Amino acid sequence: LGRCSGGDFLLERMTSAFLACVPFPGDQDILLESYVEGWAQLLKFLNALGTLFGFISDEVVSKMEILQQHRGRDDGDGSHQEYVSLKSMVHHELSREMVDFKGTSRDGLPSGCRTLLRLHRALLWLHLFLDKLGRSSEHESSSTLCGEAYSLTLAHHHGWLVRNTASLAFLALPSRGRLFELFCPGDTGQAVRELQGAVAAIKQVTDITEKVYEQHRMLDLP
Ligand code: 1PZ
To answer: What is the rounded CA–CA span in Å between residue 170 and residue 51?
Structure first.
C-alpha cells in the first residue's frame, strides 16, 4: 500500500526519525541526533495547530535548545562525542557530576539528563494519545482522548497552572477527522496505519529511555 502523499506533516517523518534513534536494538541505546530530529518533526505539527499551542511549542523549543547546546551544534569538529547517544550522555554527565539530584543548583545550563527526561515524559503522553486516537471510533472527541491521555501521564508532573492551561488548549484541538486529514489527507485507513507505525516507533524509544533512567535512578530528577 502506498504512503500518504501531499501535505507536509508527516507522521511518517516523525516515525522514521524515532526509528532511526535505535539503529541497533540490542544496544538498548538512543541516538540523540535522531531524537532531536523526531522532536523537530513534532514541532512542525504543533505549529500547524495554531497560535493557541504556542506556549507548548515554546517549551519544546527551549528544551531542544538546551540539548543542542550540550551537543555543541555548530562545532562540527566532533568534540561532543559525549552527546552522541543517551547512554554516552548519561555516563558523561554522571561522571562529571553534572546531574543535580536535589534541585539545588540554580544557575548554569540544566543537565541534558533532566532536560531529556521532560521530553521523555511528553513522549509517554504522545504514545498514549496516538494509540487512543488510532483505536478510536468516529464519534469520539480528540479533546477528550487527549485529556484522558494527559491525566494518565504528563499531568502527574505538572502543577495546577500548567494543567489548567493545557486543558484549555485541548479544547482547541482540531477534531478527530481533521487530525486524520493532517496525518494522511483523504485516506482514513492509511492514517490509522501511519498512527500505528508512529506508536510502535515511539514505544521502542520510550521503553529504552525508561530503562536507562531507571537503572540510574533518574526518573524523578528535579
Ligand atoms: C497537541 C496537543 C499537545 C498537548 C500536549 C500536552 C500539553 C502539555 C502542556 C505543556 C506545558 C508547557 C509549559 C511548561 C511546562 C514545564 O514546566 C514542564 C516541566 O519542565 P521544567 O519546568 O521542569 O523545566 N515541561 C514539560 O513537561 C515538557 C512538556 C512538553 C510538551 C510537549 C508536547 C508535545 C506535543 C507534540 C504534539 C504532537
So the answer is: 13
Is 118 near ligand 1, meaning CB less than 6 Å away? yes
ipTM reported for the complex, 2 dp:
0.97
The beta strands (E) that lie in 69-183 are given as none
List, for residues 144-169, the tens digit of each pLDDT value: 999 999 999 999 999 999 999 999 99
Separation of CA 142 and ligand 1 centre (Å): 18
**pLDDT reading at 76 higher than 80:** no
Q: What is the pLDDT of residues 88-104, one digit of tens each?
A: 999 999 999 999 999 99
Is the beta carbon of 126 within 6 A of some atom in ligand 1? yes
What average pLDDT does the structure give for the chain?
Answer: 92
Per-residue buried b or exposed e for 11-25, using 16+ beta carbons within 10 Å of the residue's own CB? bbbbbbbbbbbbeee
Distance, first Cα to last Cα, the chain: 46
4, 185 contact by CB (below 8 A): yes
Beta-bridge partners for 31: 85
User: Alpha-carbon distance 172 to 50, whole Å?
Assistant: 9
User: Which residue in 17, 33, 163 sits closest to 89, CA to CA?
Assistant: 33
Nearest-angstrom CA–CA distance, 92 and 24: 21
Residues 6+ apart with CB under 8 A from 1: 190, 193
